[in-house]
Amino acid sequence: MFSKACKYGIKALVYIAIQSIEGKRVTLGEISKKTDTPEAFTSKILGTLSKNGLVSSFTGPNGGFEIGLDKMKTVRMSDIVSVIDGDEIIWQCPLGLSGCSDENPCPVHHQFAGIRTKLTAMLESTTVYDMATELKSNIQVLLR
């Protein structure tokens, strides 16, 4: 459902959050290695997340990425998805048909409405902090 970039972005941001809770700033290389994501692609994704204020990046010998506790409690999955994939992932036709609408529905349009509502609620209610604290106890799910 989400693009590869979005999945990588979520994994990277959750890993950064887990490390930030421990008071650690992490480098791009560490993030890429630990989350098994391509470094160049991860760099581009993190640049987008940083530019949009979802994560902080620092240059220099002590550089890397971190996210403050207050920020991780306010950044929601919907923010990450919106920045990387855009909002159309939620509102597009599940079959990819361009003419699908309430007035001209595709064969699964009305059944998908309930799924869309639940998906939107999950994305809006789940924060980076929620994911980080949940995965912290089972970090192997996140790591390669």
Question: What features would you describe in this structure?
Answer:
58% of the residues lie in helices and 4% in strands. It has a single domain, classed as Orthogonal Bundle (Arc Repressor Mutant, subunit A), CATH 1.10.10. The chain has a two-stranded antiparallel sheet. α1 crosses α2 (28-35). The protein is built from eight helices and two strands; from the N terminus they run αααββααααα. It is elongated and about 55 Å long. It has 144 residues and is mostly helical. The mean pLDDT is 91.
Distance between the termini: 21 Å
The CATH architecture category equals Orthogonal Bundle
Number of separate strands: 2
The major sheet is characterized as: 2 strands, antiparallel
- Give the CA-based shape: elongated
- Number of helical runs? 8
Q: Give me the oligomer status.
A: single chain
How confident is the prediction overall: mean pLDDT? Answer: 91
How is the largest sheet built, in terms of strand order?
1-2
Tell me the domain tally.
1
Could you tell me the CATH topology label. Answer: Arc Repressor Mutant, subunit A
The CATH C-level name is Mainly Alpha
The structure class reads: mainly alpha
User: Rg, please?
Assistant: 17 Å
Q: CATH superfamily name?
A: Winged helix-like DNA-binding domain superfamily/Winged helix DNA-binding domain
User: Uncertain segments of ≥5 residues (pLDDT<50)?
Assistant: none
Helix content: 55-70%
Measured by DSSP, the beta-strand proportion falls in under 5%
Following the backbone from N to C, one meets helices and strands in this order, namely: HHHEEHHHHH
